[in-house]
Amino acid sequence: MDKGTLTQGAQPAIFNLREIIDGKWIEPHFQPIVSLKRRSIVGLEGLSRGIHPTSRGLIPPHDLFHEAAQQGLEVELDRLCRHKALDDFRMIHSLTPDLVLSLNLNTAIFDQGVTGSGHLRTQVYEMGLQPQNIAIEIVESEVMDLKELQRFVKLYRNYGFLIALDDVGAGHSNLNRIPLIKPDILKIDRFLVEGIHEDFYKQQVLKSLVGMARQLGTLIIAEGVETEAEALHLLDIDVDLVQGYYFAKPQRHDRLEKEAVLQKVGDLGEAFKKHLLGRLGVRKFNMNRFYAYLFEIQMELREMHPIHFDLILQRMVERLPSVENIYVLDESGIQVTESIFSKNFKPHRNPVVFKPSPKGSDHNFKDYYYFLMESGLNKTSYLTEPYLSMASGNNCVTLSSVFKNVDRKKYILCLDINTESLSVDPGQ
C-alpha cells in the first residue's frame, strides 16, 4: 500500500512484523481526491499505517514495507493492507456509492508469481464492492518482470478495475511505460507539484503531460498539493483532480471531514475566479498595447523603401522594452531586415544554439507566414501559440501583420514577445 518516506530525522520503529500481520494491526487512512471544477470529492486514496501492539503508536508505512521485504512477507502484508482498506471503504461506499477507492499495489508481487491469483478481485467481491469503484495504483519502475506487469494490467482491466500509474514525473519514472500499461489515470508525483507556480520548467513539463493525457483519454491526478498558489496554478493549466494536505490530511474513515474539504474547494473556486479575471484583464490590456505598437510601427514603415526598414525598426524598438525582437519579411517569406533586439534583451541560453535569423532567412514554413499569405483567409494579423524561440531561447509568441509600403508591395511585420511580459501588470 502506501510506501511513504520517513520524516527527516525520524528513527525506524521497533516492532515484530509477524505479530502485526497475525494480529491485523493495520489501520487504513484515507485522503480525499478532489475535482476542483465539479467542486466535489470523487475518490479516496487508501493509505496504511501499522499500529504497534504494545504502545498503540502508528508505524510509518516505509518501516512496514521495508521490514516485509527483509522477511519475505510482502505479499501477506500487501493483502492485509488491502483487506483492511476495503473493509473500511465499504462503510463509506454504502453512504456515497459513487466514490472511487485508489489502492496502492506492492509491485514486488509481480516478481513473485502471484499476479494471476485473482486475490484482489475476490477481496473486492467479498466486501460487496464492484471493480469499477477501485483504482489500482502501480509504481511501474519497481517492476522487474514487465510481462507479468502487462499480464496483471490486462487481467484486472478486463475485470473492470481502473489502472493508475503512480509517481509520474518522479526521478525514476519511465514515460515509455505509459504505452505499455495504457493507464486510465496518471498520478503526478509531488515533485512536479511543489512550487509549480514559481517554476517555469515544472509548468511546461506538466502542461505537456496534461496535453498528452487529453489525447490519450487519460485522467490526471496531481498529488502533494499543499498551498493555494499550487492549487490555483494546477487549475490554470487544466489539472482538475488533486489531492494533498491543502485539502485534507489522511484520516481514519470515521474522521473524514467532508464538509471542511468542500468548503476549501469552494473557497479555492472563488479565488480562482478572481485570479482568472485579473490575469485575463492584464493579458488583454497588454495585448492591446502590443497591437498598438504593431500599428504604430507599420505607419512608419508604410512610407519607406525597404532599405530604410532597419533604421525604423532600430529607432522604434528602443521605445518598446516589452518587445524582444522585431523583423520584416517580404511576401515570399524572406527576411528583408536584420533581427532587431530590444536593448533590454539579455540572452540566457547557449548562443551557438539560440541565435537570431539573419537578413535573407526563409520563413515561409512558419505558421504566421502561412496564415497571412498562403491560406486564403485574408487575415491581416496573426498571433502564434507560445513556442521556444530559436532566436533568443525564451518562450515567446509572434504577433505579425501585413502592410504595404510606399511601392505598394506586401510585407509582414513581426514582433517576438516574451510570454512573461503578457502577464506582467504594467501598473505594478
Fold topology:
Elements: H1 17-22, E1 26-35, E2 40-51, E3 58-59, H2 61-71, H3 74-95, E4 100-104, H4 119-126, E5 134-138, H5 146-159, E6 162-168, H6 178-181, E7 185-188, H7 190-193, H8 200-216, E8 219-222, H9 228-236, E9 241-242, H10 258-301, H11 309-317, E10 323-330, E11 340-341, H12 367-374, E12 381-383, E13 387-388, E14 395-404, E15 410-418
Parallel strand pairs: 2-4, 4-5, 5-6, 6-7, 7-8, 8-9
Antiparallel strand pairs: 1-2, 1-9, 2-3, 10-11, 10-15, 12-14, 13-14, 14-15
Structure description:
- The radius of gyration is 28 Å and the shape is elongated.
- The protein folds into two domains: 17-256, EAL domain (TIM Barrel), CATH 3.20.20.450; 291-423, PAS domain (Beta-Lactamase).
- Strand 6 (162-168), helix 6 (178-181) and strand 7 form a beta-alpha-beta unit.
- It contains twelve helices and 15 strands.
- With 428 residues, it is of the alpha/beta class.
- Helix 9 (228-236) packs across helix 10.
- An eight-stranded mixed beta barrel has the order 1-2-4-5-6-7-8-9, surrounded by four helices. Strands 10, 11, 12, 13, 14 and 15 form a six-stranded antiparallel sheet that branches.
- It starts with 16 loop residues before the first helix and ends in a 10-residue tail after the last strand.
- Helix content is 36%, strand content 20%.
